[in-house]
């Protein structure tokens, strides 16, 4: 969208005023007796007040009316959004989904919230420990209604169709191959421009941060200056027919009514903001001698657990890059893992499974479930000439990796009718190459 402005940096202390109201941020204090322009001061806290300073997250919003002015919340249907991880029996199989169906606008108008579908997850929003993985499939913009997640952060990965997200902090346009994070408690509304689909990683109880770089050094992977957050923008709009606030709370949906737009923040300052990032800016680290590095070198964002080095969830991408490793099987190796691996594809073909794994689809390889290259990939790459080559050109696959053992929902296994029952067959042709008479070559 032409004309949208952003501020750059990850976790910075930002300040922003809508240019229509210069001087709207109070000087020298957060909560004066009377705010400039007669605004209300309201703090949004994303951490406990007593968190150490590096982890303390809060922003001050200066708004025309405070968010407390609304009618009571009442329960509304959740559709296919759930936190019930016991709907169906556990399934340890390798799972793959065909592209999830987007409803046709000529048949039924579905906005972002109505189009939320939970695929899998684990943990509990009440105890503030867990994750949910959702798809959104929608075809119409949200009108006079917004969404607020009291349970956790949303990391949104558009796959088809750009989305214009209006937040209390301002507007962001997010296109496929970009991501955005709407942190816990932030109200937002989504405009779409046709049939739209994407993935969401929801994290309860932790916020996303940049991974530590360790021996990589000071630079690399996702650089802080490439993250963008919106600038202040307000609307002073009365809605006599009622504006609906939808609140996700303890895994359920609730709605309340008010007679004004919630996007009435004239100015704000703080370090607790929504933000977006373009995946093409990721500075890839890769092998330049031999062997295949672990996918952790492709981590964009991580939500840490209390165990050192163990994530509640990592967001990992597999971007275009050079493959140059000598005497090495270059694609991903065969693997069993103590983490759950949910993969999605934004565009192109994933190198380890060029057929069957399609943009808008997904796969789940659960804890200790074996997985790896399909037959064609193994055979081709076992005999390929190992010259420098571009890998994943024109593609972008990603992974939500978690230390939680995720349960798949009834919607994911049955209702969506997109589960690929033939997935296991891609490994069926694998055959033994064992030769007991093999001898090492004489050098």
Automatic annotation (TrEMBL):
Gene3D superfamilies attached to this UniProt entry: Jelly Rolls (2.60.120.10)
Pathway listed: Amino-acid degradation; L-phenylalanine degradation; acetoacetate and fumarate from L-phenylalanine: step 4/6
Matching NCBIfam families: hmgA
PANTHER family, alphabetized: HOMOGENTISATE 1,2-DIOXYGENASE
Family to which this protein belongs: Belongs to the homogentisate dioxygenase family.
Stretches that traverse the bilayer: none
Keyword annotations: Dioxygenase, Iron, Metal-binding, Oxidoreductase, Phenylalanine catabolism, Tyrosine catabolism
Protein role: Catalyzes the conversion of homogentisate to maleylacetoacetate.
Residues that hold Fe cation according to the record: 335, 341, 371
InterPro entries: HgmA_C, HgmA_N, Homogentis_dOase, RmlC-like_jellyroll, RmlC_Cupin_sf
Uppermost EC category: oxidoreductase
Domain of life, source organism: Eukaryota
A molecular function (GO) term: homogentisate 1,2-dioxygenase activity
Homogentisate 1,2-dioxygenase C-terminal domain sequence ranges: 280-434
Domain (Homogentisate 1,2-dioxygenase N-terminal): residue spans on this chain: 5-279
EC nos: 1.13.11.5
Catalytic activity: homogentisate + O2 = 4-maleylacetoacetate + H(+)
Protein name: Homogentisate 1,2-dioxygenase
Self-association state and partner proteins as the record states: Homohexamer arranged as a dimer of trimers.
